[in-house]
Amino acid sequence: MCAFIAILAYMLAPDSSKNANQMHLSIHSKGPGFSVKMITIPSQVESDQSYLSKIFFGTKNMDTEIPIESYSFNEEIINVIPYTEGELIGVSKNIALSGFPKGLSSEEIENQFIHDRTFILGTDKYGRDMLSRMLIGIRISFSIGFVAVLISLLLGITLGALAGYFGGKVDVFIMWLINVTWSIPTLLLVIAITLALDKGFWQVFIAVGLTMWVEVARVVRGQVLSIKQMQYVTAAKALGFTHFRIITKHILPNSLAPVIVISAANFAGAILIESGLSFLGIGAQPPMASWGAMIKDHYSYIILGKAYLAIIPGLGIMSLVMAFMLMGNALRDALDVKG
User: What range(s) does the ABC transmembrane type-1 domain occupy (predicted)?
Assistant: First the structure.
């Protein structure tokens, strides 16, 4: 379900602007279910953005939304009183009717451009819609998990298969490399790689992927060491098949069941690492919607009676990680020959 949401995030999000970054400072830090009246002023900039671009990357030129308490039509203007909190009365503001499509009556403008807006999960400290930020944030978590696992599989399966099949000095060197990498704390290594490659979105992908191949390599090496003793491998060698064909056609297909289980666990691990990096400020950079960065921005609000601002993205991370761990356990049971 989360994968489906990640693909169609901008279609499902109430705020379809790029990175769900439309701010309304007057309604910041509101609780779940908060409602306010909004007036929408159409953008005067003509957009040449394609429909597919809007679906996958968000709308670039968004209409301007203003939270208001009341409004009234007066000849060629709309007089609005912006939303204010408490007993303060907002300073009235005049909006020219020329900013709306021509030929519309007051009633038509009222029906099309003035509406009640409900923020199901509330708003963050910048007045952005939390629900939209959560939906867009799923993309970051899924992307980091998918790319990191892909990199770890390419490196881990290749090096593990070479170490297990050829043995000798090749095995000694690869095992030395594995042990050195394993001895370095994962988060510390990711931070070092991220800082070396500069902070950013794709740099985190590479950094996390380069630290998760070790476990895959060890498992593949162990599987190859046992499988290469099988009679069908000896027969393939006797028939003169190349090492590449023996490894790819006969050994690896029979050794990937445990690797699939590890991949599901690594997917969950990659999500946690990315969240930790974003919390430290070296993961996905603002204004990207990252669950870890959302916790970083709002963890101080826990003592201010607005803990939901940090708890909501925390629950999202916990649920997604638990889903992948449960999927990994199910794959382990399904692929267990003894079971």
Answer: 138-328
pLDDT tens, 223-255?
999 998 889 889 998 999 999 999 988 898 888
Cβ proximity of 134 and 195 under 8 Å: no
Instruction: State which H helix or E strand residue 227 sits in.
Output: helix 213-227
Q: Domain limits at 303?
A: 131-335
Which among 175, 248, 176, 187 is positioned nearest to 212, based on CA atoms? Answer: 187
**Is the C-alpha dihedral spanning 62, 66, 67, 72 positive or negative?**
negative
User: In angstroms, what CA-CA distances link 27 with 43, 139, 255?
Assistant: 22, 26, 56
Angle (nearest 5°) at CA 120 between 95 and 302: 105
Extract the tokens encoding 16: 């379809």
Last residue of a domain, one of 119, 139, 165: 119
Q: CB under 8 Å to 280, separation ≥6 — which residues? A: 191, 296
In this structure, are 233 and 331 located in the same domain?
yes
Widest distance between CA atoms in the chain: 94
For helices 257-280 and 201-211, what crossing angle results, to 10°? 140
Q: What is the pTM of this model?
A: 0.85
Q: Say which residues have a Cβ less than 8 Å from residue 9's Cβ, sequence separation at least 6.
A: 135, 136, 138, 139
Residues in the chain, how many? 339
Nearest in space to 119 (alpha carbons), one of 7, 26, 1? 26
- Which pLDDT tens digit goes with each residue over 111-162? 889 999 999 999 999 999 999 999 999 988 888 888 888 999 999 999 999 9
Question: What are the two backbone dihedrals, phi and then psi, of residue 79, each rounded to the nearest 5 degrees?
Answer: -95, 120
Q: Give the full edge-to-edge strand order of the sheet including 64-74.
A: 93-96, 77-82, 64-74, 34-41, 114-119
